[in-house]
Structure formats: C-alpha cells, structure tokens
Write a structure and sequence with these properties.
The chain is mostly helical. The chain has eleven helices and seven strands. It folds into two domains: about 120 residues, Arc Repressor Mutant, subunit A, CATH 1.10.10; about 120 residues, no CATH class.
Length: about 280
C-alpha cells in the first residue's frame, strides 16, 4: 500500500536522526567511502537532495522537478537531467544510503516519492548467525550434509601481515598487539580516514598518523581501566575526531583570529567557528 502524500512534517516517523547536525555527519561519512561511486552530476543531485532533507532530518518528499529547478538555478542554467537524478537515486538505494517510498494523492494518482536517508553503519559486521542459518528442510540427509560442510568450512582469520598496503605500517604495529586480525586493523584505520575527511585533511600525513596512534593508545588505556566502553571502535572514532577538531581550530587561530571562519561540509552546508567550539 502506497503512502498518502502530505506535508513533510507528517513523515517524521521516517527520520533516523535526532538533528540536522547528526544527519550531516552521517552524510559526510557516507560520502567519505562512497563518493567515487557517483558521477559529478549524480553527486550534484545527491547533495541537493540532502539540502532538501533538513526540515525533517534525513527525509524529503520534494518533487524531482523542484530539485532539478533548484540545481539549474544554482548552476546558472547548467543543471542535471532527470535521468541523471534517477540514476543517482538507484545507486544510492543499492549502496544503502537512502530508501524510497511511493506516495499517492487522495484520488489515487501517484505523487512525489518520499526519500529517507539511512544512518552510516558504524563498521559493524553482519551477524553471522543470521547469514549462516540454514533453511528448514524435511530432508534429514541434506541437513546433515550441510552441518558437515560447515565444520569443514571454518572461517580463516587473517593476521596483521595481511593488512592492506593502504594502512600505514606504524599504525599496524601499534594495533596488532591488541587486535591482531587484518580486518579489525583495517576497520580502525577506516575510522581515521572518515574523521580526517570531516576536517578536509589528507589522512596520509605524519600528523594524522601520530593522532591515530595516540588515539588508539588512549582507547587501550580506557579499556584497561574501565568496562564501560561498549563499542571500542566507536569510542576510538570519537577520540580521533576530537583531536582533529583541536588541531583544526589551532590552525585556524594561527591563520587569523579576527576574520569570521567557516567550515564547509561536503554536503555544502556551512558550519561556523562557534559551532566547532561548542561541538561535543
């Protein structure tokens, strides 16, 4: 059954975010790892849809025509086509960035789609027990064969020597004593990449590497001293983000203390210096 069209406030239940600020943060993380999947024109369409999803954070029911008109005006007549926008939506759906729902008017005719953005998955792997659960069968022999095959197909854990070359060796050497498998080490460095992207840093610098190692050591100290850390990798991301924010503010202060300073998100939204100081 299709949704009934209406004012955007009526679709608050489809929002996964508590605020526009939280929504923008998740969009930044999505773009950090999926930006290359989109063409230049498709990115323009995606970012415009993001900007039309602020009244109810992460949700929009804007018509494609309205979105295209706004893009065309911003780019002085050099907008994108309807087919480009639709290709973007298909890609975004396939990547898990957005969900779409058809809506209809009171007379039953089709109205504009409802777009609902998803939260960025915080590097949580899929639950194996759900993926590996066999379908029910009355064939006892087939079930036994499946169980035997599972015993013979035990997952092989790759150690730190199999970590991707994209991860600095200094970081690998610091992490391997506590998390030795390659996948986990790569996930921790992935969090560094996302945090660096937020502040427009190139992650392949000595400063970023040093902050990453310091942050990991701080995480380990926290894990050793308390049991309150539920998700270590999320806690690590928070440490890295705070350290990069401090470095970012220090650099801005050195450039100028008198001029108003802006921090432009990848989505195009402008955040001001005072917001950065107050961000927790």
């Amino acid at each position: 059954m299709n949704l009934k069209s209406g004012r955007i406030e009526g679709f608050e239940g489809y929002s996964q975010f508590k605020s526009v600020k939280e929504f923008n943060t998740h969009i930044e993380m999505w773009l950090a790892v999926k930006k290359h999947e989109f063409s230049k024109g498709e990115l323009v369409g995606l970012k415009r849809l993001v900007r039309f999803s602020a009244k109810v954070p992460g949700v929009s029911n804007a018509k494609i025509g309205t979105l295209l008109k706004a893009i065309n005006e911003e780019y002085h007549g050099n907008g994108i086509s309807r087919s480009t926008f639709k290709r973007m939506i298909i890609k975004a759906k396939d990547l898990g960035i957005v969900n779409t729902y058809e809506t209809e008017r009171k007379n039953g005719s089709q109205s504009s789609n409802l777009y609902s953005f998803n939260r960025f998955p915080q590097s949580e792997p899929p639950k194996a027990e759900k993926l590996d659960q066999p379908k029910e069968t009355n064939n006892l022999l087939k079930t036994n064969n499946q169980k035997n095959n599972k015993r013979n197909e035990a997952p092989i854990e790759l150690d730190y020597t199999f970590v991707s070359d994209k991860v600095p060796q200094a970081f690998v050497q610091s992490v391997k004593y506590f998390f030795s498998d390659a996948k986990t080490i790569e996930e921790y460095w992935h969090m560094v990449q996302i945090a660096a992207f937020r502040f427009e840093y190139n992650q392949n610098t000595d400063d970023i590497l040093s902050i990453a190692i310091q942050s990991f050591k701080q995480l380990i100290r926290k894990l050793k001293s308390t049991k309150s850390v539920v998700k270590p990798i999320a806690f690590f991301y928070g440490i890295v983000t705070n350290k990069l924010k401090e470095l970012f503010l220090n650099q801005l202060t050195e450039v100028s203390e008198s001029k108003p300073i802006r921090y432009v998100l990848e989505t195009g939204e402008v955040m001001y210096y005072d917001w950065l100081r107050s961000e927790s």
